[in-house]
């Protein structure tokens, strides 16, 4: 099979991408499109192995001769090679790489080097990853392909969702979405979060027009870069359009929980604005003020209805506030897996009977998989890999029985396998080769193959690999930490307390090192209870290295630090000040960042030391 023969399937994808952009006046066009996009996915997933080989061929063909690939391919003429042979050659010549390997190349692009470094097409935009997982934002290439795949996965997922939860055409989405600052690099390239680029792209408007679902807030609110002001306006406008709202959405669940925490505080002010058609002096950005004031007008009846609902809901701690305020909403839609799981409880509380639909799996590097089963509870959701978006490889990870050495944590790695060779039940680290110029890039996410949709794997997201607590021979992942915190917060809940947010740190400056867990809580609980929570968490880390070290006191007692109310908002403000966007924010679950630790330690009001191993 010659690479030239790849044109047919690629044309199919191109045709769909173009179809997604044609805004027709035909009322049925979207129904037809939904049928077409589902058939398309059926076809590419049935032929996932071949499609992957062809996708790799296309990426290499498009970027033939770029500096990064030249390093490994030399002057080899790949154009006339058989696609399968090229796939094997690629894996044998091009090494696995991490972001650090790409950093010097991306930096040169950021500094204005226009030579074909990673891609033949010049890169004019760079994305900033949220940086809240590793504590450091990464710069990554962003191209038109990135926005197109965002639109494509959005429409694919929407087609599957509409089978179960159809929404009314012409309705609105109360979307808690936020752009980041858009910076200019030294070389004049625009840099911002990937979602920011998407909201600014033509594709975002196309999505609204094609799905005939419009976000409640104008661009000035989304692009305000002042998340508190944007949240206020999102809520205000969402309430103004209350009867048109068909769903409530955000990128990550955190933003919805954050928005309703704001609502609990500011609902009276919002009601007063709705009543009088005014806008709170909290909104200081002139463009945002004007855009919102242009939409609102006095609505005293609506304001008093909302007020009545709020007074009543407040008495039940805001249980079920979402369906009460938006009775026509069909579901809440957001990423609820992975590091968002701790917010699920609060989200369920606000949503009550309203279904929660967990959104798709992607990263700043590229989209990965789509949720084909919107009815599944968020805890059970998996993601079918879209084989045309990138070339995916999977590093098999097998847990070490006894991991007493340092190095790559707790796992023995096997040779990467292509998508066609993954096995159900096996855990893997994902490796991406993208149209945006990343080649065999280790994403750092651990996934488990849950099953298959036709020939493409469905993945459970397990955790991010590099996020671990370790003092010496102990190794705990984000997942282990999450489980321990869950056990501890069960005790807290039993006594009427509520965990608002948490993070952790492995303290190794003083001997013996120990784990510190920072909790922000709501509600009055006795110190005795918090001491018990601390001990329960310590005992819940079952990693062999940790248990042995605790027994021999080479790791000290776990320390629970209770921070004052609002501390995690300060953490959020710190990240937003450094260019993150609320929409992509994930509380770092483990940190070594000095500034963050300073904020946490200054805000600590109580400390408890575990007695679990006394
Ligand atoms: P960023 O590029 O910084 O916005 O973050 C991307 C990362 O967020 C991914 O690599 C995952 O670790 C995590 N992530 C994205 N989507 C999901 C999802 N649906 N479930 C769990 N984690 C996700």
Q: What is the structure about, briefly put?
A:
One of its GO terms (molecular function) is acid-amino acid ligase activity. Among the domains are: 172-179 and 207-354, no CATH class; 468-609. It has 21 helices and 24 strands.
Percentage beta strand = 15-25%
* Main sheet: strands, sense, barrel: 9 strands, antiparallel
Supply the helix-strand structural class: alpha+beta
Mean pLDDT, nearest integer? 90
Tell me roughly what share of residues is in helical segments. Answer: 40-55%
Radius of gyration: 25 Å
* Ions, cofactors and other bound molecules: adenosine monophosphate
Uncertain segments: 1-10, 18-28, 403-408
Domain GH3 C-terminal: 480-594
GO cellular component, one term: cytoplasm
GO molecular function: acid-amino acid ligase activity
Signal peptide: 1-19
What descriptors fit this protein?
five-stranded parallel sheet, binds adenosine monophosphate, nine-stranded antiparallel sheet, alpha+beta, disordered N terminus, 614 residues
Task: Walk me through this protein's architecture.
The protein has 614 residues and is of the alpha+beta class. Among the domains are: 172-179 and 207-354, no CATH class; 468-609. 42% of the residues lie in helices and 21% in strands. The protein has 21 helices and 24 strands. The strands form five sheets. Strands 10, 11, 12, 13, 14, 15, 16, 17 and 18 form a nine-stranded antiparallel sheet that branches. A five-stranded parallel sheet has the order 6-3-7-8-9. Strands 2-1-5-4 form a four-stranded mixed sheet. A hairpin with a 2-residue loop joins strand 17 and strand 18 (456-464). The longest helix is centred in the middle third of the chain and has 24 residues, at 253-276. The structure holds adenosine monophosphate. Adenosine monophosphate is lined by residues 129-130, 133, 335, 337-338, 360-364, 443, 445, 461, 464, 584. Belongs to the IAA-amido conjugating enzyme family. It comes from Gossypium mustelinum (Cotton). InterPro entries: GH3, GH3_C, GH3_M. Residues 480-594 form the GH3 C-terminal domain. This is GH3 auxin-responsive promoter.
């Amino acid at each position: 099979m010659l690479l030239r023969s790849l044109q047919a399937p690629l044309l199919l994808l191109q045709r769909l991408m173009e179809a997604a952009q044609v805004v027709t006046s035909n009322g049925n066009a979207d129904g037809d499109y939904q049928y077409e996009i589902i058939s398309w996915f059926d076809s590419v997933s049935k032929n996932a192995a071949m499609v992957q080989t062809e996708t790799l061929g296309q990426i290499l063909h498009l970027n033939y001769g770029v500096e990064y690939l030249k390093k490994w391919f030399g002057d080899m003429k790949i154009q006339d090679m058989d696609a399968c042979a090229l796939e094997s050659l690629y894996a044998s010549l091009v090494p696995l790489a991490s972001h650090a390997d790409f950093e010097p190349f991306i930096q040169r692009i950021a500094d204005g080097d226009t030579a074909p470094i990673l891609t033949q097409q010049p890169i004019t935009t760079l994305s900033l990853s949220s940086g809240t997982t590793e504590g450091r934002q990464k710069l990554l290439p962003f191209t038109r392909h990135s926005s197109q795949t965002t639109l494509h996965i959005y429409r694919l997922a929407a087609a599957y969702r509409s089978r179960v939860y159809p929404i009314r055409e012409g309705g609105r989405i109360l979307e808690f979405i936020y752009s980041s600052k858009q910076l200019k690099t030294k070389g004049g390239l625009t840099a911002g979060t990937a979602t920011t680029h998407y909201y600014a792209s033509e594709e975002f408007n196309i999505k609204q027009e094609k799905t005939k679902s419009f976000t409640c807030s104008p661009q000035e609110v989304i692009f305000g870069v002042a998340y508190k002001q944007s949240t206020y306006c999102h809520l205000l406008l969402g309430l103004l359009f209350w009867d048109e709202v068909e769903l409530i959405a955000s990128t990550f669940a955190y933003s919805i929980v954050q928005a309703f925490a704001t609502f609990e505080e500011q609902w009276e002010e919002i009601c007063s604005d709705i009543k009088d058609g005014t806008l709170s002096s909290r909104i200081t950005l002139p463009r945002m003020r004007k855009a919102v004031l242009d939409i609102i007008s006095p609505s005293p009846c609506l304001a008093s209805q909302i007020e009545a609902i709020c007074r009543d809901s407040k008495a039940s701690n805001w249980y079920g506030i979402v369906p009460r305020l938006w009775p026509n909403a069909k579901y809440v839609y957001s990423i609820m897996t992975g590091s968002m799981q701790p917010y699920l409880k609060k989200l369920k509380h606000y949503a009550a009977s309203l279904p929660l639909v967990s959104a798709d799996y992607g990263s700043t590097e590229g989209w990965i998989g789509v949720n084909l089963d919107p009815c599944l509870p968020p805890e059970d959701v998996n993601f079918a890999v879209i084989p045309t978006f990138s070339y995916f490889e999977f590093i098999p990870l097998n847990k070490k029985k006894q991991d007493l050495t340092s190095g790559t944590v707790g796992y023995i790695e096997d040779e990467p396998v292509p998508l066609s060779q993954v096995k159900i039940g096996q855990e893997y680290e994902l490796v991406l080769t993208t149209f945006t110029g990343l080649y065999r890039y280790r994403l750092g996410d651990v996934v488990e193959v849950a099953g298959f949709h036709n020939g493409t794997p469905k993945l459970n997201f397990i955790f991010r690999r590099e996020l671990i607590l370790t003092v010496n021979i102990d190794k705990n992942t984000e997942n282990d930490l999450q489980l321990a915190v869950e056990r501890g917060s069960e005790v807290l809940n039993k006594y009427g307390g509520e965990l608002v947010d948490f993070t952790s740190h492995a303290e190794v400056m003083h001997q013996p090192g120990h784990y510190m867990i920072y909790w922000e809580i709501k509600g009055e609980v006795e110190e005795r209870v918090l001491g018990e929570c601390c001990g329960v968490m310590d005992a819940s880390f079952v990693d062999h290295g940790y248990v042995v070290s605790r027994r021999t006191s080479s790791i000290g007692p776990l320390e629970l630090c209770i921070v004052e109310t609002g501390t995690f908002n300060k953490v959020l403000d710190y990240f937003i000040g450094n260019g993150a966007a609320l929409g992509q924010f994930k509380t770092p679950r483990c940190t070594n960042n000095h500034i963050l630790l300073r904020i946490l330690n200054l805000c600590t009001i109580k400390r408890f030391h575990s007695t679990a191993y006394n």
